[in-house]
Amino acid sequence: MEKIRVDLGEHSYDICIGSGLLRAGKVLREKILGRRVFVVSNQVVADHYLDSVLHQLEGLDTDVHLMPDGEQFKTLQTLESIIGDLLAKGHNRSTTIVALGGGVVGDTAGYAAASYQRGVPFVQVPTTLLSQVDSSVGGKTAVNHELGKNMIGAFYQPKGVYVDTDTLQTLPERELSAGLAEIIKHGVLADSDYFDVVEKDIGQLRQKDESALIRAIKGSCKIKAAVVAQDERESGKRALLNFGHTFAHAIETGMGYGQWLHGEAVGAGMVMAADLSARLGRCSLDDSQRIKTLVERAGLPTAGPLEVSTDAMLAFMAKDKKATDEGLRFVLIEGGIGKTEIVQDVPVSVLRETLEAGLRLCE
Ligand code: NAD
Ligand code: GLY
C-alpha cells in the first residue's frame, strides 16, 4: 500500500493507494474512532463493493444509505434525505460517514458530513478513476443548484482516503477516460515528467494495467496534494487545477448536464486552453499538439460540440463562477507543459478564434 500525505496542519490525512485494499485487512477501521458508521453509496457501486466495506467495518454499528445514481441527484433533496436518515437512525456527532462511490457520492456525502450536526468525521472510498485522482482529495464537497453546479458546499477534509485500484476493473470505459482527463490535466499544470509518464503509459492505462494505474493515481494524488497543501481554499494556486475547466463548464452548460461527462468536457476544454496558450505565444504549437494527441489517445473528445455556438460559449464563460470583477480568467500554459498560470487579460478576439477552431474541429 502506498501512502500520500495531504499536509494541512491539524486537518492532514493520508491517501492510501493499493490493489485489493478493500479485501486486505481492515484498513478502514483505523480512521473510525466512534462505534457508529453511516455508509453512503449507490446501488451500482454497492452491488460490487458494499460487502467488502461492511466486512471491513465488522464489529461496528453500521447503517447504509443508498442514494440514486447520477449527477442529477447531487442535489439538496438528496442531501436532505441523507440527513433525514441520519436523524431517524439516531446518529450523533461521533458517527463517521463513509463515502463509497464516485465523485457524485463523494461530493454529496462529504457535504452531508460537513453539515450534519455542524460536522462529523468522514472517510472517502473513491471507486471511479476521476474520484481517485481528483474529487476525493482536497476537501471540496458540494451539491448542485438548478442555477449552477457545485453552488452549495463547503471545504471539509476527510479523515482519510482509501483507493482500491481493483475497483476500476468494473468501471465502464467511458468513465475511465473521463478520469484520464484529470490525470492529463495534472501533468500539464504542474509536472512535465509526469506528463511524459502518462504519455508513455496511456495504452496500458486504457487496458487497466494495475501497475500503470497505481503509477498514474499516485502521481496525480501527489500533484493535487501539493497544490491543496499550499492553497486549501482556492485563494490562489489551487485555481490552476481548473486548467481547461472554463471551456469545459461552458460545454457542460451548453449541452445540459448529463450529455457529456465532466471529464469529456475537460478533455475538449484542455485542448482549447492549450490552443489559446499557443495563440498567445505562451507555449509552442508542438506542446499544444502533444496535449491534443494525448487527449485523443485517452479516448476523449478533442473539440467542443457543434450544437453550442461560439457566442453561446462566450456567454456561458462570462457567467462562469471563476469569472471575476476584472473579467474572464483562464489557466494557461506558461512556457511549456508542466507550467501554468492564471491569466486575466485574454483578448476576446483571440478567444473567439480559439473557440471557432475548437468547435469547427468536430465537423
Ligand atoms: P459518478 O460519481 O457519477 O460515477 C460515474 C458512474 O460510475 C456512476 O454511474 C457510478 O455509479 C459508477 N461507478 C462508480 N464506481 C464504479 C465502479 N467501480 N464500477 C462500476 N461503476 C462505477 O462520476 P465521477 O466522474 O466519479 O464524479 C463526477 C463528480 O465529481 C461531478 O459531480 C463533479 O462535479 C465532481 N468533482 C468533484 C471534485 C472535487 O474536488 N470535489 C473534482 C472533480 C469532480
Ligand atoms: N478539482 C479542482 C479542485 O479540487 O480544486
Write down the CATH class of the largest domain.
Mainly Alpha
Portion in helices? 40-55%
Low-confidence stretches at least 5 residues in length (pLDDT < 50)? none
Count of β-strands: 11
CATH architecture assignment of the largest domain: Up-down Bundle
Shape: globular
The largest sheet is: 7 strands, mixed
N- to C-terminal separation?
Answer: 46 Å
CATH superfamily of the largest domain: Dehydroquinate synthase-like - alpha domain
Mean pLDDT: 94
Q: What is the strand arrangement across the widest sheet?
A: 1-2-9-6-5-3-4
- Please tell me how large the radius of gyration is: 20 Å
As for the CATH topology of the largest domain, it is Dehydroquinate synthase-like, alpha domain
Q: How many structural domains can be distinguished in the coordinates?
A: 2
Number of helices: 12
Strand content: 15-25%
Polypeptide structure, described:
With 363 residues, the protein is an alpha/beta fold. It folds into two domains: 2-170, Rossmann fold (3-Layer(aba) Sandwich); 173-362, Dehydroquinate synthase-like - alpha domain (Dehydroquinate synthase-like, alpha domain, Up-down Bundle). The chain has twelve helices and eleven strands. It has helices at 43-56, 76-88, 103-115, 129-135, 173-190, 192-206, 210-230, 245-255, 262-279, 285-297, 310-319, 348-360; strands spanning 2-6, 13-18, 36-41, 61-66, 96-101, 122-126, 140-145, 148-155, 160-164, 330-333, 340-343. The strands form three sheets. It has a seven-stranded mixed sheet with strand order 1-2-9-6-5-3-4, with helices on both faces. The N and C termini lie far apart (46 Å). The mean pLDDT is 94. Residues 134, 138, 140, 234, 238, 241 line the site of glycine.
